[in-house]
Amino acid sequence: MATSTVMKISPQGQIRIPKKVLMALKIVPGDYVEVDIENGQAVLKPRKLVDPSQGWYWTEEWQKNETEVDKEMEDEQYSPLLQTAEKGVKWLNE
C-alpha cells in the first residue's frame, strides 16, 4: 500500500509525521525509526532498540509464559519451596 503525504520541515529541522503514516508503519510516538537514503530518497524504517542478546525475552512465546507465571504468583500457585530464596537455593542444590 503506497501512502504519500507532504510534511513541512521546521526551523529546527524536525517534521511532524501524520497519523496515517504512523498507522501505516505501525509506530507510535516514542518509537524509533531509521532513516536511510536510497537513490536520493529518505526511507523511514521502524526499529526496536533491544539488545540482540536479550531478544528472546521479547518473543511472543516468552511474554505469554511471563504472563502465565505472573498470574500464578498473584494466585499464590507456586511451590512452597520457592517462597524464599534460601528455600529455592536449597532445593536446587539437592
Q: What fraction of residues sit in β-strands? A: 5-15%
CATH C-level class of the largest domain: Mainly Beta
Give a short account of the largest sheet.
Answer: 2 strands, antiparallel
What structural category arises from helix and sheet content?
alpha+beta
- At CATH level 2, the architecture of the largest domain is Ribbon
Overall form: elongated
**From the alpha-carbon coordinates, what is the Rg to the nearest angstrom?**
23 Å
CATH level-3 fold name of the largest domain: Pemi-like Protein 1, Chain: D
State the share of residues found in helices, binned by percent: 25-40%
| Count of DSSP strands | 2
Number of helices: 3
Verbal overview:
It comes from uncultured Desulfobacterium sp. Keywords: DNA-binding. The protein has 94 residues and is α+β, with helices and mostly antiparallel strands. The protein has 2 domains: 1-48, Pemi-like Protein 1, Chain: D (Ribbon); 52-93, no CATH class. Helix content is 33%, strand content 15%. It has helices at residues 19-25, 60-74, 85-93, and strands spanning 32-38, 41-47. The mean pLDDT is 86.
